[in-house]
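Objective 1b: paired records.
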Amino acid sequence: MLDLRPNCECCDKDLPPDSAEAMICTFECTFCAACVDDVLKGECPNCGGNFAPRPIRPASKLEKYPASTKRVLKAEGCAPKAA
């Protein structure tokens, strides 16, 4: 089951479980759409993979299957990827 991490690993923007801005790679690295497009240019800085929109868990399932509260943030930040 997906963790539904609560923030962007680059800019620390909040990404609640119903956020349409949350993007994930195959390892569930989580970033906001703006960082994926503008900074990372579609490539995960952790694994080199691509991104897909994170699915939205139905509100009716969040009580039984809550989103993660563990924030992950790259201490060194995300360097812009060369175009």
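Objective 1b, second protein:
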Amino acid sequence: MTVSVRTIVLDSLRPRSLAGFYAEVTGWKLREDEDVDEWAVLVNPDGGVNLAFQYAADFKPTTWPAQDRPQMLHLDLGVDDLDAEQERVLGLGARLLDTQRTFRVYADPEGHTFCLCAC
């Protein structure tokens, strides 16, 4: 048996809007063959794992680092220049949560955590 991860799916109140945020962050393109508000897929141009967003009416963001609603998953995104990418993602609507020497933790516009990591 062969098993592979094809897509990581994040719950969202506004899937197409959140997909737009991550499209700007990653440079990936929105898959156009699904024109629905409840589902959006960003296609990995390298052929790896795609990133998708599905509507969840009861979505509540993590309260990380507090554990009231712990994060269940987060994305680690590799970048060449932490400072430049930080300015870019903050300009797109991310919120800085923590700064470390080799990575930084952010919340996306809906409150999912993600990290920018020095390559």
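The domain at 60-119 is CATH 3.10.180.10 (2,3-Dihydroxybiphenyl 1,2-Dioxygenase; domain 1). The chain has a mean pLDDT of 94.
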